[in-house]
Amino acid sequence: MGTPCLYLGIGVKLPVGEHDRFDQGKYAFDRSKAITGEASVSDGIVPATLQLGSGTIDVMPGAFGQIRLWRFSVSGGVTALISGGANSVGYERGLNLSWSMGLRLVLYRSDQGLKVQIRGALSGIVLFSNDIDHSENTALLGRQEKGEVAGTDKDYTFWEAGADADVSSSVTASVSLRFALGRSAGASESSFKRQVNFTVSFKF
């Protein structure tokens, strides 16, 4: 039995992805719902769930643990994403927590460095609050925040199975199948029913 390991860390998510993509059709729709001719900063902006980035600097604290027993390895981890506030179009992401737990089994290991293993894992995203659209709209009572974005506080769970092979001391090949359990993520960045990944990594 190996010694249990626990790692704590913190990271920063930088605003490198586009967060303010504009669509003329969306703009026409937004303006058709407005009461006056005053435009909102978010009119015509594609929904945040379809944008590549958040437009904010976010903090990501996390923890990861692992223990080995014979050829088995059990691991688990959690990472929180704490939003840096509203971006340039007034959109603020809600607090969310990503979690995972997995099991690996080494099937074969050679003296030449070849190792083959299979793995299975459960992972999920827990969204604790709705996103908030701080941009203003013209209502009967004057300029008001658009407020909470309905449906952005849903939770999602995924199952993943895969296999890895260290074909040499510097090359690893992996294949995995990931699919959603229960509720589908809909229009979010996690939106898929099934996903197959092939990866080749090199160590230098």
Overall description:
With 204 residues, this protein is mostly beta strands. Helix content is 4%, strand content 52%. The strands form 2 sheets. An 8-stranded antiparallel sheet has the order 1-2-3-5-6-9-10-11, with no helix packed on it. It has a 3-stranded antiparallel sheet with strand order 4-7-8, with no helix packed on it. A hairpin with a 5-residue loop joins strand 5 and strand 6. The longest helix is centred in the N-terminal third of the chain and has 9 residues. The chain is elongated, with a radius of gyration of 22 Å.
For the termini, the CA-CA separation is 30 Å
Largest sheet properties: 8 strands, antiparallel
Structural class: mainly beta
The count of helical stretches stands at 1
- Please mark out the parts with pLDDT under 50 across 5 or more consecutive residues, or reply none: 184-190
Q: What order do the SSEs take from the amino end to the carboxyl end, as H and E?
A: EHEEEEEEEEEE
Question: What is the arithmetic mean of pLDDT?
Answer: 82
Helix/strand layout:
Blueprint: E1 5-13, H1 24-32, E2 58-69, E3 72-81, E4 91-92, E5 96-109, E6 115-127, E7 132-139, E8 142-148, E9 156-166, E10 171-181, E11 194-202
Antiparallel strand pairs: 1-2, 2-3, 3-5, 4-7, 5-6, 6-9, 7-8, 9-10, 10-11
